[in-house]
């Protein structure tokens, strides 16, 4: 049971990390003036955040990963 909870938490954290990295890539593209890539990264990040919202009810995953707590039901 504990291993399954840890695996689920790891996947949740990875979704958040992916969204953050995509946002960072979009910001870098916008900083150098490559707006098509910035727009694409923004849309892609939105897709990841929408997936997070479907899974936990919040686009930013609030309350999804709780340190040293049982998994949310």
Q: What would you note in describing this structure?
A:
The chain is an all-alpha fold and 73 residues long. The protein is 71% helix and 0% strand. The relative contact order is 0.15. The model has no long low-confidence stretch (mean pLDDT 85).
Report the oligomer: single chain
Largest sheet: none
Shape: elongated
Q: Could you say which structural class the secondary elements and strand pairing correspond to?
A: mainly alpha
The amount of beta strand, in percent, is under 5%
The succession of helices and strands, N to C, reads: HH
- What is the helical fraction, as a range of percent? over 70%
Average pLDDT: 85
Helix tally?
Answer: 2
Alpha-carbon distance between the two ends: 14 Å
Overall strand count: 0
The radius of gyration is 15 Å
Low-pLDDT residue intervals, each spanning 5 or more residues: none
Strand and helix layout:
Blueprint: H1 2-31, H2 35-56
Please tag this protein with its features.
single chain, about 70 residues, mainly alpha
In short:
With 73 residues, the chain is mainly alpha-helical. The protein has helices at residues 2-31, 35-56.
């Amino acid at each position: 049971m504990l291993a399954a909870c840890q695996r689920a938490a790891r996947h949740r954290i990875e979704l958040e990390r992916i969204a953050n990295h995509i946002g960072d890539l979009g910001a870098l593209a916008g900083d150098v003036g490559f707006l098509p890539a910035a727009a694409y990264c923004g849309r892609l990040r939105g897709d990841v955040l929408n997936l997070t919202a479907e899974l936990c009810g919040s686009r930013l995953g609030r309350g999804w990963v709780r340190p040293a707590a049982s998994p949310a039901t």
